[in-house]
Specification:
With 186 residues, the protein is α+β, with helices and mostly antiparallel strands. It is built from 5 helices and 4 strands; from the N terminus they run αααααββββ. A 4-stranded antiparallel sheet has the order 1-2-3-4.
Length: 186
């Protein structure tokens, strides 16, 4: 009877432990996919929305300051705040989210997809290593970024990318990402 209870407890411990690992990985996976995956159609919509927002802000500025020939203004995008940052809000630390926006990491995929006229998809996302400290979980990930041209579907480019992520143990949110390696594949 004791052996059966021990076996049941061992199995339940393993299931609970595995569940935590899966949960932890899913946050990093969502984050990596949110940073790298994009369809060309989304990039076109992003560009059109930003252009329309810019025109509206310029029109508003011209209406209020018609006597001033030189117009300087700061462009703070409501579109980015409302539509893009909300997808990161639950998985990324707020301070780090601001840095990602300022450094262009969040919007870079849109401009790259638009410029290259391509879709980008992640393949073979693999957890390479994981270390836990008192404050964070550091994970090293490797994946293939697949770029498919929307002009010529036969044109496919591949990059092997390696990144490291940090997730706070306290908030369970991503606090840092660094791309360690990006290598074109033949």
């Amino acid at each position: 009877m004791k052996k059966i209870i021990l076996i049941i407890l061992s199995i339940s411990f393993l299931i609970t432990f595995d569940r935590n690992i899966i949960f932890a990985s899913s946050i990093e996976e969502k984050f990596i996919q949110a940073l790298y995956e994009i369809n060309y159609a989304e990039a076109v919509e992003f560009d059109a929305s930003l252009n329309q927002e810019m025109k509206n802000k310029i029109d508003t500025l011209e209406d209020t300051e018609s006597s001033c020939p030189i117009k300087l203004f700061s462009f703070d995008s409501d579109f980015i705040q409302n539509n893009i940052l909300t997808s990161f809000h639950d998985i990324v630390d707020e301070t780090y989210l601001d840095k990602l926006l300022i450094n262009g990491w969040i919007t870079e995929k849109y401009t790259t997809a638009l410029t290259n006229k391509s879709d980008f998809k992640i393949d073979q996302l693999t957890l390479i290593s994981e270390e836990t400290s008192n404050e964070a979980i550091k994970q090293k990930w490797q994946f293939i970024l697949v770029e498919t041209s929307v002009v010529d579907l036969q044109q496919i480019d591949l990059w092997e990318i390696e990144v490291v992520t940090y997730r706070s143990l306290e908030s369970q949110k991503i606090t840092f990402l660094k791309e360690l390696r990006r290598q074109a594949q033949d």
